[in-house]
Amino acid sequence: MSPDGHLTHLDPARVEDLTGPQRGELNAALCATFSQRRDFARFLLYQLGRRLENYPCDGQGLEDVLYIIIESAYAEGWLFALISAAYKDRPNSTPLARFVHVHLTSTRVHIRKYTAFNTPPIGHSPEPHLYSLANTAHFDLATMDEAMYSAMQTGETVVAFGVEYVGETFLSKLCDRIIHRWGDVWHEVKKPTLDPVTGHTPQKCLKIIARFIEHAGEAMSICVVRIDTLVIEDGSHSIADDFWKMLQSSFSSIPGRLIVLFAGRPGMRFPDGVLALPSPHFRHIDVYQWTSNIVQELVATHAWPAQLRQRLGQTWCDWLCADAAVDSAGGPLDIELLYDAMDATINQLHISHHNLRHELEQRARNADAPSG
Fold first, then answer.
1. Tens-place pLDDT, residues 308-321
2. Positive or negative, the Cα torsion across 231, 236, 240, 243?
3. Which pTM was predicted?
4. Residue 225, beta-bridge partner list
5. Is 208 within 8 Å of 190 (Cβ atoms)?
6. Which of 94, 225, 232, 276 is the most exposed place for a label (fewest CB within 10 A)?
7. Are the beta carbons of 183 and 217 closer than 8 angstroms?
8. Do 263 and 224 meet the contact criterion of CB atoms below 8 Å apart?
9. 248 φ, ψ to 5°?
C-alpha cells in the first residue's frame, strides 16, 4: 500500500537509478521496519534464501548490516527483490511504504484492479528486456509515439496533445509512455476537469496546475485535462481555447517543461496548436504480437518449452481477448478491460512464471479437448 492507502505499482527499472543518498534513505526505512538484527536475518533467509553471515560486516548494529546488504544487492542486481520482499513481508511499515511510494512508483493513483504487487519472482533479479516487454505501458502505442515525436523535438516549454478517449487506465498508460520515452526526470500534476458548470473554470484549473508545477523545478510535468463535458463546435471559440492560451502564457518561462494531454470525446475539436493523437484502437493481432514476444523471451531466459512457443502465445492472446471483448468473442476489444486483463496476467508472471506457464498449458489443453 502507498502512504495514502492506494495499491501501488512497483517499477523494477527505477532501482537502477537510486542514488547513494536514496539508498541511505532505504537503510533508514529498513532500520525502522526491522528493529533487530536477528529479525532481519530471519527475513533474509526465509524470504530471499540468503544467509546474513555470508555478508561480513565490521559493525554489529543493524544499520551497519543493512549498509552491506543494500550495497551488495545493488551491485549484484537483487536490490529490487530485497525491497519488494520487505514491502510484501511488512505491509504495515510506514517508512518503507513511504520510500517505495516516492522512489519506486508513479506518484499518481492507478485505478486498476490487479496492480498491488508487480514484482519479479522472490530471490531473482529482474531481466530488463523481459520487464520492458511485459510493461503494458509499452503495448501498441507506437502510432502515438510517431505522432508525438516531432512536437516533443521542438523544444517548446508547453506542449499539448489531444486524445479522443477519457479512460483512466489508458491515460495513465499514455503518461507512462511519455515518461519512458522523453522524461528522464518527471513530476506529475493532478488531473483537473475543465467544466465551468461544475465550478472547474479555466482559472481554477490553472491554479491547480500552477500549485504542482511550483515544486517541479526542472522536471518535466505531465497534466491530463479532461474536456469531454464541454460543448465545442467546429469553427467556434471555446473555453478550451482560452484555457490553452492561458497555459501557454502562464508557463512559457518555467525552468522545466509542461506536457498537457487534453482528453475529450470521439470527434471532438481540440484547440488550435494542440496536436490530435490517433484514437486508441487495439486489435487481436496487436495482442498476439505482445504475448508472443514475451513468450519468446521466456523461452530464451526461463526455459519455457520452445516447441510450445506459438501455442502458448496464442493461448495467452485468446485469454486476454476473451476477457476484453464486450460483446462476443472476436468482437471489438475494450481498452480498459484489456489493460486490466494484461496487468492481471503480468502480475502472475512476476509472482511465478511457472504458475503462469502451467495456467496457459492447461488452457491450451482445454481448448484442444473435444466438446461434449
1. 999 999 999 999 99
2. negative
3. 0.59
4. 262
5. yes
6. 94
7. no
8. yes
9. -60, -45
